[in-house]
Amino acid sequence: MPPPKLKLSLFVCSENSGTALARLYKALEFYAYTDFELSIVDVAEEPIRTQSLEIRETPTLILHTQSGDIRMTNDLSDFTFVRKTFGFKASE
Predict the structure, then answer these.
(1) DSSP-derived secondary structure letter, 54
(2) Per-residue pLDDT of the chain (92 residues; tens, 9 = 90+)
(3) Residue 14: C-alpha distances to residues 17, 44, 54 (Å)
(4) Annotation: CATH topology of 6-86
(5) Where are the domains of the chain?
(6) Local structure of 3: helix, strand or coil
(7) Which end of the chain has the least Cβ crowding within 10 Å, N or C?
């Protein structure tokens, strides 16, 4: 199987994790689940990792690329903005 096209990390706190994840999946709706690798990090469970990456708000979404990380901190409810910022497919 080829490697995923996108490598993402979603930093959440437990009370907003379900909403953030649902919104992210909506932004990724044109990708197959094999097209991306998603790491979900609860900031309360991994405080050292959270601090080392300077995560100060949740949800924070990070797209890991060869040229560096692209980061967004907001509620991910504007799917068009999320897609545009991260270069996600807009439609099939």
Answers:
(1) T
(2) 677 789 999 999 988 899 999 999 999 988 887 889 999 999 999 999 999 999 999 999 999 999 999 999 988 999 889 999 998 886 55
(3) 5, 8, 18
(4) Glutaredoxin (3.40.30)
(5) 6-86
(6) coil
(7) N
